Amino acid sequence: MSKEYVCDTTALAAGEMKSFIVNNEKIILFHLDDGFFATQSKCPHLSAPLEKGQIIDNCRIQCKFHRAEFDIKTGKAELWANFPPGIQALNFIRSQKDLKTYGVSIEEDKVYLAFE
Description:
Blueprint: E1 2-8, E2 16-22, E3 25-32, E4 35-40, E5 54-56, E6 60-62, E7 69-71, E8 77-79, H1 88-91, E9 101-107, E10 110-115
Antiparallel strand pairs: 1-10, 2-3, 3-4, 4-9, 5-6, 6-7, 7-8, 9-10
């Protein structure tokens, strides 16, 4: 397992998210009230960019395009695509999937991601 530098902890205030390319993968780094977390950058529904979404209740990311919601810490899909009306018909083809998450560590005010 390797760890890769992402940014300094001061790069994101609590409640913010930002996309980065780390180890040739585009990720989103979240700074929540209880720490830093990282997920894949694309919604598993139709690959929409999650960095255009919003953080809800300091624990979930909601995709802007079809309103799927994911637990930022675990990646678990909490609500699958449900907007606009009728999008559920496509869900038959694109079954519910969780987000990939990454281990995050902080060392001397620097954020690192773990890669296998």
